[in-house]
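Z., the sequence and structure:
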Amino acid sequence: MASEEELFASVDALLNEEPQLPPPAERARLREAAGITQARLATALKTTTQSVKNWENGRSEPKPPRLDAYQRLLNGWAAKHPAPGAGSAAAPVPGAASSEPAASKVETAGAPQASAVAAAGPTRPAIRPAVPSRRPAARKAAQPAVDPRFPHGPLAVLDGDGSAYGTDGLVLDCPATTVPELVEWTLKESGLGAAKLNRYGKDSDPLIVLTAAAAVKLGLPEHLEGHEQRRSLRLPEDHPVVKQVTKAKWQLTQRGFGPWARIYRKAQGRERQCVQLAVLSWDALDERSWPGVSEMEPADIARVLGVYATRVITPRGSTAVSGLELMTALRPPTKAVRDEETGNWVSGYNAGSLGTEPMDPAPPEATPEHPVVVNSGWKGGFLNEEAYQWVRSVQTLSDEECTLPFAVGLDLNTAFLAAAARLVVGLSAPDRFHAPKFNPKIPGSWLADLSHIELDPRLPSPFTPDGTRPTGPAWYQTHTLAYAQELGHDIHPIEAYLRRETGAYLDPWHDRLKNAYVDTLADLGVTKDLTDVEFLAAMEQHKQNDPALAAVLAAIKATVKGGVGKLRERPQGKSYKEGETWPALSRPTWRPDIRAAVISKARVNMHRKLNNMVKMTGLYPLAVLSDCVVYPSLGESPLDFLPYAASGKPQPGGFRLGPTPGLAKLEGVQSMLWAVDLMEKGLNPARHIKGGDAVLDEGE
């Protein structure tokens, strides 16, 4: 038999527990029975209408002191307004799931029974379906299993009322009023984060995006001013918020508290303590990469960033930064290996990665201001592997071409991404060779003379970005020389910088971004099974189908280009002097040779298609700009000049329409007269074919 003291102790323990609320549907029924609106209830409890909605549809739960007050109110309403009939189900809440679990049924008149109350679940917000969208259902890619460590997804958008909008319609209540409190809440209570993308990698830190109202509430200025360059925006070290962070024993990275701020403590064992903040009103989301996103409602911003985080990576900065981070996340530099002498697990090199230490480039692969160049006095020239910027000479146009009514622009989908597929790059430091025999399978930089090769003036040279014929020896990446060999020319390099260790470093990066691009286009109604006619029609309206997903698509494309560009990030700031190092050089991913390999292959791929188009159709382009080419055409559609077999299938080797990387879509249509007029002025029609207007002083 239990003693009286033991019984009283057990009862006191129950009394001290947090009150349990009735199921969400019953909360809504009681409020409606009392004739109280959600807005009026929010005012009484000194919270927001959105929070009340969340409590009544099960997306979140109130916390003390509101929890006790809300419980008392519901108990009072339950006494006055018992449920109509024993065992009847509570009325469904608009926007909630179509069927409630058995525990959410009201079993008797009056207050819910203990079994129903207990089944209402913990006070931690639960993941529930989003409010039904007015948009048509999209084709969804297979979703990864939810990591139990991060039940609420990778990120949240915090508004000024304390509502933190997550993915899948989730809304959490965030009580933080300072940045340190926000960091603590994010790491200990929010359930935010994302699992690592590679078994040897690291989990993604949770991201909190701050609206302007949230930033002000946390003591941050709504806007940062006084800096010419966006990248230099940051709070001064004596700002109160920076002092709060330091006082709470948190640290900021060397970039300080800017649009993308990382707040961390040193890891304890395997547990990372780091939160990424993005401040919307400080232009964290560049309009060029995230069109229209900053102006969206917080829930829509969370949807855009959530889809991107799930399909690409949790953003850690600009799309360029995210593109570079994705490379490392998919190819971590180290892995655990067993020490043969001690038997202990230690950190070792992960084969196929770029390692942990930065690597000096070969002088011709570097930039003119690089210490390797300045300190050595290098005068031997540099790689010039850049994307096409070529305009055909008007003098080479035939009368027949000039009489065609239209100029039609084709754009290759993520051409750099297509070039990254199965691309073998160097993983070790470069070695110098004199008069080597050319080997198209070895990545590197070769000095060779291609000026003797005769070229058709109606096509750009495949060896130079501006399409002009080389005038003497120059440095080329392996793919450029391999293409010259493919065209039937003998290649005799004078000198080379080659790498002995090689690998397809970018393959997982290519695969993940390709899937992200294709899946997002499919969600917008542009799928692989469409005919060319259907594809062109779908592309005309895909952005209007869902502006949020259209923004995700734009961000994916920006991630590709920005990630490749970051491989050769140049120094920033007016105070920089040639020969000094700059921050980017400390990264193992500062690899201008890999950037050159991607761009060289993309340019070669473009020229190969141009050449094949001549063989199959006799058509020559008017201009090329990176991944866009303009052709004269009898009609306004690419279908009027693209090569098709008698069976109706596209001819292999030329430009083909489709939604995957490397295939083409319509960029724009203008009159042939418009195109010729630009060409006569030295302007590139490919730059303006989409919009039509040309800036005459753009300096092309």
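The radius of gyration is 30 Å. Residues 592-617 form the longest helix (26 residues).

Let me know what you think.
H.
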